[in-house]
Amino acid sequence: MVINKIARNVHQLNLSKQETKIALLSDIHWDNPKCDRNKLKSHLNYCKENNIPIFINGDFFCLMQGKYDPRRNKKDILPEHNKANYIDAVIESAVDYWSPYAHLLTVIGYGNHETAIIKNLETDPLQRFVDLLNYTNKTSVYTGGYGGWIILKYELYAGTFLSKNLKYFHGSGGGGIVTKGAINLTRALEMYENMDVFVMGHIHENSSRNDVRDSLAYNFGKHCYELTQRQIHLAITGAYKEEYSDGAFGWHIERGAPVKPIGGRILTLAGYDKKINGERECDMLIDSCKFPL
User: Fold this and answer.
1) 253: helix, coil or strand?
2) CA atoms in the 13 A half-sphere facing the CB of 18
3) What pLDDT does residue 108 have?
4) Integer Cα distance of 42 and 198 in angstroms
5) Sheet with 207-219: strands ordered across
6) H or E stretch including 181?
7) pTM (2 decimals)?
8) pLDDT per position as a tens digit, 214-224
9) What are the distances in angstroms from CA 210 to CA 3, 49, 197, 206?
10) Other CB atoms closer than 10 Å to residue 159's CB: what's the count?
11) In order of start, what are the domains of the chain with their CATH numbers?
12) How far is Cα of residue 127 from the mean position of the Cα atoms in its chain?
């Protein structure tokens, strides 16, 4: 796996033919006591055991216990972070926790929790974390944007490469209890062009679907136009912050929010090279699933 930065929020992930999966995580809220660290550790260890690269789509941190934040609550801060240098304590302990997985991390995007710190405290906790993580482990993890692109370049076999475009956006809105983000995915289809994968988080759901577009493309090898069916995989990644508990008290309960699924998704790439009606066809199929139970 090699990751290259093309622009501020555009990166290219070069995968060998042995690397056919990418972990899609978001809304980890790592420093919050409600983060399910047992589940998170299980998923990270699964990635480590199977050499699966990891992309994180925002809200890596929670960071709501700063002096400026009206949401701060003594029960929502871990003892090791309850210090005068609160932000520093979170970042430094996060580097210790994530160092065993640093070689698997590719791009970490921003969520509303990180951008709130930039706005209110004039420091970028995500970039500081990535810089310290890279310095400590001599790795090349990148920060992305609140939205951006990752080009998935896949080696079908020696000298033959396929590429697909992944569009990511952390997310917006509260997520409908009934639709569970389906409308957000349909909006994405209207907003973005030339994507093969769309992934979002923010609303703490976990699902995927496949849409297809009838397309007309010019085949430079054959010097003619061809009708093609473009497959688009759309996914919403779940959170690792479990806020419902027993349903007795809390902001999550008072706003009428339900129990949310815990965990990210694993994107699977399946390249193929075959002959159809005597003509060679190469492509890459993409789907995703939850982490194994």
Assistant:
1) helix
2) 3
3) 98
4) 25
5) 2-7, 10-15, 147-157, 160-169, 197-200, 224-236, 207-219
6) none
7) 0.94
8) 999 888 878 89
9) 26, 29, 9, 14
10) 6
11) 2-290 (3.60.21)
12) 16
